[in-house]
Amino acid sequence: MKNLVILSGAGVSAESGVATFRDSGGLWEGHDVMAVASPEGFAANPKLVLDFYNARRRQLFEVYPNKAHKIIAELEADFNVAVITQNVDDLHERAGSTNVLHLHGELLKARSVNNPDDSIDWKQDINPGDLHTDGHQLRPHIVWFGEAVPAIEQAIPLIEQADYILVIGTSLQVYPAAGLIDFANKNTPIFYIDLNPAQIPNLRNPLEVFPVTASGGMEIVRGRLV
Predict the structure, then answer these.
(1) Position 105 confidence tier, pLDDT thresholds 50, 70, 90
(2) What architecture is the 1-18+65-104+148-226 domain classified under in CATH?
(3) What gap in Å lies between CA 182 and CA 60, rounded to an integer?
């Protein structure tokens, strides 16, 4: 089977009711994103940051995969599918996708403030005083602004080996994730689904753009691919 690599962003989960950072001018519940999604913000007010992610984690138990998630999972019947997602929810997995790489971490995991490489499954709130087994405070297993994105090293070879690339629900504005398509073979077709698709400068690849919802676009692209 051919290799299909899917780069997914917030626009996929938005249809399930998962709110995004950028839809409201970079604010979340009145907070600047840097106050709740940066090491500096956590150092300044750890309780605010923990509460922010606790609310997002609790929301996951109230939302469900949508048609776009389900079609992506169904494509595993016809392709070797790798999902590289900027999303920190588990909706791809709950829809049935079996090969998901989370670039920016996962809400349902926590880690020690002392060790970014030792994450544990975590489905409840994280509170001040909750400690990892190493004795240090727990924090969300999320890549914050200004932190390294270690999963990018796993993502690059997947892009290099792709026969088809599907970009869905992302503005292609957040790096290094947005730069992944630069590693594609120049003959690899790219399908781009987004309600407000961005311009992609200096792209060498064949490109088809679908300015529609994630679910609507997946219906179209599935018909093209299968």
Answers:
(1) very high
(2) 3-Layer(aba) Sandwich (3.40)
(3) 32
